[in-house]
Target: tRNA N6-adenosine threonylcarbamoyltransferase
Amino acid sequence: MAILALESSCDETAAAICTPDGRLLASRIASQADIHRLYGGVVPEVASRNHILHVRPLVAEVLAEAGMQLGDIAAFAATSGPGLVSSLLIGTSMAKALAVAEKKPFLAVNHMEGHLLSPFMDENGPVSPSIALIVSGGHTMLVQVRSVGDYRLLGRTRDDAAGEAFDKVAKMIGLPYPGGPEIDKQARLGNPRAYAFPRSFLDGQSLEFSFSGLKTAVLYELPKLNLENATVLADVCASVQEAITEVLVEKLVLAARQTGETLVTVSGGVSCNRGLREKLTARCAKEGLTLLLARPDLCTDNAGMIAFAAAQRFSLGHTSPLEADVDPNLAL
Ligand code: KG4
Ligand code: ZN
Model:
């Protein structure tokens, strides 16, 4: 028996199957990035129409990959928020329909819990007391994790999310959507000390984040920059990445110190960033903190993490009513 989960909160349609103890048996993603790149960002109407096209074939593909039939699935799960309403509705409607047809339970999964628990996948479990940094396109949060479902928000961004900062700056300097991976690529060739971009709330004990000042600082710098010059472009990218990642790493360490936790985890799309991963590894080793990072393909949106979160909840006896609605602003 296994759990089948669907993810359709934004512009990726994804399906995955995992065992009740959270071992991933199959995972597929149909990315729409190429379509939305034409518009410089996600167009909700276009996203939901494409989810409809992809969702049924993806279910068939993961069942085939896992060597299973619908009858082998113990519960059907889907992301119910936060995200785009019209996108969320596709995955949840499909999962509910499968649950009704197969007479099996349905589980509504919080997308952020999916990210939060993803570092515990790949035999890194069980989920243990820790400090989680979640850095995605829509969220930047520090969370104290006591056990599955027992979370305390320690801090979050007051304005832009870290991924949003990467994407907005990338757009300003002419890099394609999504900008995070593009800045990451360029930054490898640049000097992170070339430009001194602001680091908000770095002094003191605050666990809050703010990235809008960085965006403004880059905007003011723009007229002085010759971005046609590859070295200038690489230096700007490396400096922006340094400003964002330094704040993320320092706040995570601060949260660990304040709470006395020694296990820290980092998840969400931005946790793919090579500079961030290197900085985290070095800093955590120096601080004596144990660091769990999700596999890069489990950092950006995927259904594997949704299946894993659903399996954790299901094993605790949780299920959701079929009336459970989607919620674009669902809190953790
Ligand atoms: O978790 P995710 O796939 O979707 C949301 O739930 O938002 O995160 C997407 C975000 C985007 O802002 C994207 O630019 C950023 O993650 N991202 C990166 C990298 N890969 C994805 N940011 C920096 N460096 C990367 N390598
Ligand atoms: Zn996400």
